[in-house]
Structures are given as C-alpha cells and as structure tokens.
Design a protein that fits this description.
498 residues, alpha/beta, Dihydrodipicolinate Reductase, domain 2, six-stranded parallel β-sheet, 21% strand, binds ligand LXAUTJHC
Length: 498
C-alpha cells in the first residue's frame, strides 16, 4: 500500500549543475520516485543546465545511468517512458549571464512556475540569480533552491544571502538542509506538539539534559578538498545538529506555517550561549580519526585519505555541551556529538528526564536512574521510552527493572511509503511550502554561534584529539560529559526489532 498521492502544480524544473554529483546522485533519483508515486504533474518539464556539450540523447543517457547507479531499485520501463520524456538539456556557462536567453528558449511553456535548483558551488549563485533576472525568471511565483554549505562563517553566509536576496524575495528562496526532509525529524513536531504528555513536560522543570548524536561510519569519501576546509563543526554541527536542536528546544509555534515555526527556531539560536577561550576546554572536544576498522574492514586514518595534506588539523569529530540561556532551558545542557568513522551509522536524540525527588526504592536502586525518551532518527526510525517497572513476584522487597516501551515506526506504518529526504524536499518545493527549509536568519544565527566555537579553538591550542576509526571518538569526549555528571547514552539497535 502507498500513501495517498500528493499532486503538485505543473512547473519548469531547472537543474543548474546537471552533470554534477548532487544532481545525479540525489535529484534525479528523487524526481524519478516522485514520478513513480504520481506526484509530478503531467505537464512538468525538467531542464538540465551545464557546461557539458551534450545533445538531448546524451543527457537522457546520463539521466538513465544516474538512476541505474544511484537508485536502490531497478528502473520500471513504464515509469521511465513517462519520466524520460520530460527532459531537455541546455549548454551554458552560468558566468555568461547574457546567455541565459538560451535557458528561456528551452522552456516550452512560459506560463508555468519555474523552480531553479542550484546544484552548483555557492560562488556561482550570484551569477545564476543575475542571469535569471535578466530573462525575467525571478518573477514572484518562481523559486530557487540552494544547498549547504551556505558559507563557511557568518560573513560569507551573509554574502550569499545578500547575493540571492538581491534578485529573489525570501518567500522564493528554499535553503536545503536535507535532515529536515527526514521522516523522523518531521515526526519530532508531532511528538512534541500533538502529545500532551510531552508537551507539558518539556522544560527545565522536568528535563535533566538532552543528548543529540549523529554518528557516521563513512570517512570523507574522496571529498578531501571540501571537507578539510570545513571540518565536522561547519559541515555537520552548523547545519544538521543545530537544526535538530532547534526543533527539540523551540517553544510551541501558534500554527504550522513556515514563518511561525522558523521564528521559534531562530529564538533558540539567539539564546545559545557563546563560547570563548575560557570555556572552550571544558565544554568542547574535537577529534580526528586514525586508521582502524569499520564493520571488520580496515580503513585508513584521516591523514592517509586520498588527497590528504598530511598535517591537517581539521576535526572529523565534535562533541560539545550547549547551553541555551532562555526561560525554558536555562540549566539544561544539550550535548551534541557527531563524527566520521565512528562505530556505527546511527542518529538519536535522548531526553533524560529528572529523577524523582525522593527515592522510595532504595532496596532496589540506591540512586534511581532517569527516565529516558530515545528518539531514533536513523536508521530504523522509532521511539523508545525507558521506565522503571516492578519485577513481578512475592517478597518483601520491591525489585525494579528498567523496561522499554518501544515504537518501531517503520513496522507500525509498514504499509506507508516513506519518502526519502530529497523526495520530500523536492515535493515541498513544488508545493510551495517552506516549513522544511531554512530561513536566512537561521543560517546567520547558527553561524554566529559556530564562529564563536571555531574562533575559541583557533585561539587556544590547534590540535584535535586522535581517535581510532570504529570507536565512539576520543576519550576526552567521555570525560567532557562525565564532568557534568552525565554519560553518553550507549547507542544500540537492540530495541528496534528490525
Ligand atoms: N553531492 C552531494 O551529495 C551534495 C552536494 N552539496 C552541495 O551542492 C553543490 C554541488 O555539489 P556537487 O554536485 O557535489 O558538485 P560537483 O562539482 O559534482 O558539481 C557541480 C556542477 O556545477 C557545474 N558548474 C560549475 N561552474 C559552472 C559554471 N560556471 N557554469 C555551469 N556549470 C558550472 C559543474 O559543471 P562542470 O561539470 O562543467 O564543471 C558541475 O556539473 C556544492 O555546493 C555542494 O557542496 C550539498 C549536499 C550534498
Ligand atoms: O550534509 C552532509 O551530510 C552527510 C550525512 O548525511 P546522512 O543523511 O547520510 O546522515 C555527511 O556525510 C556529509 O559530510 C555532509 O556534508
């Protein structure tokens, strides 16, 4: 069984950077899946744009080979027949803005709304916007989609924001953070605001601390140049982890409109306590992986990766204690942890509730453990609630045990089609809904805080702590959280009933 199909209005969907990795790996397969579930309007037209001198036939072959290579399933010929007819290709160097008329000439129906997806490096965004405006494709109903990294600090993010906002209004700009397209992240809003048990127990009166872990098994996958300039703080914390944090920490929006939700997220970002050279040692750890084993296979260290410059001090791991100085969260640490080449690919949010103020069960537990709400984001989306229960039986003593209420969302909703992040995000752009996209001020405010961390690191010592690939990061990370009398939740897929 599939979810009900969501249809979208007809559009011209232009992919700038059609030859690139993002277009081939993510966008083409996502568009095909939307075709498959009937979510693309019959009159929607897809135009690839790039510097390659391809004719239409060559481009169609590239589209097909992208599906063969990057889709998990094989191509259905009926769907392919419909899908492949939508495409055309336009040869263009986007720096030659006077040539954008060629793009316009390729569009069969100028009455349709145009969605411009910039699968291109950020330094080209200004030219593309200018070129589009020269041929009138920045009209009010048209949209642009841009991808991270949006800058590498506050100043460069501002430059990008001002380049695009010169030609497009904020309501036309869709900034992708693909984590916002993940089903489990969307479910956080429902969990928090549709369930009074959580809604009314979500602040510093009831919550002790929060942990957010996004661990990866992959290394840098041949992206040395990009990654070494960024590091895990800019690549993952500034975007995905801070987005998860804002959704967990935001106050209830008064409706589900994009601006209402984003207003609340921005308030959280503005409340993040800045980091400085006095605090950095105690609350932040950065690491870099050395050679080790992932799933039993040997993997090289960061400095042995292809393209490495051997003495890089870029971090591939970050763990950090974040303080939110607002009324709801003052005194509740949010611990973030993310790294490449860790023990397993696993993302979760763990909410540790406060312990009861009196312990009536000292015969079983000298100190009662916290109730934990574990929200598993990937893989195997689900929710676990750990509570204490009495072990059945006679006897004078109460014997208690931590038990687990487990929701495996994939199993419960096994009949439903779960959209992949890019499928969801492309659908939302076509529907014109901006909730799952990041507003300019979220980008700028998250950079402001990230800059404070990176600057403090640059002013203290310059070396990341080493950790072996296949572990949970440097021992200093365990030490950092232990200083707050906490310890990292042991990531496990034990309760998922896969
Ligand atoms: N790949 C991914 O999964 C992700 C990528 N991103 C971001 O998306 C952007 C694109 O990434 P990715 O696809 O990996 O990069 P690639 O280098 O693979 O592709 C970029 C494309 O841009 C084209 N291009 C560059 N300059 C021009 C120009 N002047 N005129 C026309 N075309 C031009 C290139 O064309 P040519 O082939 O002719 O050089 C190339 O096809 C980057 O900012 C990246 O950080 C974000 C998230 C995920
Ligand atoms: O944006 C990025 O995300 C990926 C991780 O994404 P996921 O969906 O596989 O969890 C990360 O590997 C990459 O470095 C980063 O640029």
């Amino acid at each position: 069984m599939r979810s009900k199909t969501t249809t979208t209005q007809a559009c011209n969907f232009i992919i700038f950077g059609a030859k690139g990795d993002l277009a081939r790996r993510k966008l083409i397969p996502a568009l095909y899946q939307l075709e498959k579930i009937g979510s693309i309007h019959p009159r929607t037209f897809i135009l690839g744009v790039g510097r390659a001198e391809w004719d239409l036939l060559t481009y169609i072959k590239i589209v097909r080979s992208s599906l063969e290579r990057f889709m998990k399933e094989s191509i259905n010929e009926n769907i392919w027949c419909r899908f492949s007819k939508r495409f055309d290709f336009c040869n263009l160097d986007v720096n030659q803005t006077e040539q954008f008329v060629h793009v316009l000439n390729k569009l069969k129906n100028l009455d349709l709304l145009t969605i411009n997806y910039f699968a291109m490096p950020p330094h080209t965004f200004g030219s593309i916007c200018k070129g589009l405006s020269l041929v009138g494709l920045n009209k009010e109903r048209n949209r642009i989609v841009i991808e991270k990294p949006l800058g590498m600090n506050f100043d460069s993010a501002r430059v990008i924001n001002s380049q695009v906002s010169k030609y497009f209004h904020e309501t036309q700009i869709y900034r992708v953070d693909h984590y916002l397209g993940k089903e489990a992240i969307l479910n956080l809003l429902v969990l928090r605001f549709a369930n009074s048990v959580f809604f009314s127990n979500w602040d510093n009166n009831t919550i002790d601390h929060v942990q957010i872990t996004v661990s990866e098994e992959v290394g840098i996958e041949g992206r040395w140049g990009y990654f070494d300039a960024m590091g895990q703080m800019r690549d993952m914390v500034q975007s995905h982890l801070l987005q998860i944090l804002t959704i967990i920490a935001m106050s209830p929006p008064f409706d589900l409109s994009a601006d209402c939700i984003r207003d609340e997220k921005v308030k959280v970002l503005r409340s993040l306590r800045m980091i400085n050279t006095n605090t950095i040692h105690e609350i932040a750890v950065r690491g870099q992986y050395t050679a080790g084993f992932i799933n039993g296979q040997p993997v090289p260290g960061y400095l042995e990766e292809i393209g490495s410059n051997k003495d890089s001090k870029t971090e591939t791991f970050v763990s950090i204690k974040v303080n939110i100085d607002n009324w709801r969260w003052f005194g509740v640490p949010f611990y973030l942890r993310t790294g490449k080449r860790l023990a397993m690919k696993y993302s979760e949010v763990v909410i540790y509730f406060k312990k009861p103020i009196l312990n009536l069960f000292k015969d079983s537990y000298s100190i009662l453990p916290n109730n934990k709400l574990i929200i598993r984001l990937q893989p195997y989306e689900g929710i676990d609630m750990q509570i204490l229960s009495k072990i059945p039986g006679l006897g004078n003593k109460n014997r208690l045990k931590i038990t687990n209420l487990n929701l495996n969302l994939r199993k419960i909703f096994s009949g439903e089609y779960i959209l992949d992040a890019y499928e969801r995000l492309l659908l939302e752009v076509m529907r014109g809904i901006q909730v799952l996209f990041v507003r300019y001020d979220e980008i700028e405010d998250s950079w402001r805080w990230v800059d404070s961390v990176i600057e403090a690191w640059s002013l203290v010592d310059g070396v990341p702590k080493l950790y072996k690939a296949g572990t949970w990061g440097p021992s200093e990370s365990t030490e950092m959280i232990r200083k707050g009398n906490h310890h990292w939740n042991k990531c496990t897929l034990k309760y998922t009933n896969i």
